[in-house]
Amino acid sequence: MATIREVAELCGVSVATVSRVFNRPLTVSREKREVVERVARELDYRPNESARALASRKSGLIGLVWDTDHRRPGWRHPYLQELLIGLKTALSAHGYHLLMLATSGSAALRAVGASLADPVAYVNMTRRHHLGGLVLIDSGKDGPAFAAFARSGLPCVAVDVVVEGDRATYVTSDNAGGAVEAVRHLVAAGHTRIATITGPLGNVPSADRLAGFRAAMAEAGLPVPDEHVVTGDFHRGSGQDAMRRLIALPTPPTAVFCASDEMAVGALLAARHAGLRVPDDVALVGFDDIELAALVDPPLTTVAQDKAGIGAAAARAVLTMIHNGRTPPPAVLPTRLVVRASSRTLPG
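Structure (tokenized):
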């Protein structure tokens, strides 16, 4: 690969002129620009991205703030994996790359005095990297830090948590609407004793899905006893534990809406271990439409989210703020009910 000096010599211009072509192109005449760009292509010359970032105070990097502590199961959730693929693909298409920012457990991060518990120091650290913007994925406890990011002036897009500011917005799914459709499906199938296994307390999608569940039950004129609302954490083990509690009730539910597919799979395992048949004895509906949902036996009825689409929408929002100086409104992506064999009409 050629050097900047070799490009300059072949073009008959100074090194400074070549640098301006790639960093401040409008300061160079069109004719010279075209010559330099053609020679650079022929020699496979690539400007030093780090130097360009320092010169322009910008970079082609978007920071991803996400608690990836290996002791927490959240980072392995299939929903997040597909979301990240959509985010990375959309950013790469526009020449941007993701920089995974360290968690508060990182020794490197502690060395610069930054953690999500100390958001001001964290914001200062992101500025030292000259990041173009930030994508924020909430672990359920990051609200105060995300509010600090929203006030920082750096373009910020949060996923599944409400963050607003002059340079901040968020992307989520229609969680409440999806839950309503799930319950309506179970009501139409003849169920009147419908329970729910929620996500973790303090989580925005969890709260919205519970609100949708309650709204649809009220719409159908059905009661929601306290014991029919059991809290989980979006993961399989909590779904098993919650289902065991529901099965043990004096009058157990005939259907359960789970706020994630992972919990629904756990509920399915618990039901099977108790000798119950799904959907003959208890119907199950999940949320997310992860790959496993179609592979379990019986296949899982679920509310599908456009997981890659959420990531792509987050990318579009942060790039809009970077390039257009405009903060787009929050994006709420639609969901759709996917009916499979884990739910069916009760015999008349």
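Residues 175-305 form a domain with the Rossmann fold fold (CATH 3.40.50.2300). The radius of gyration is 25 Å.
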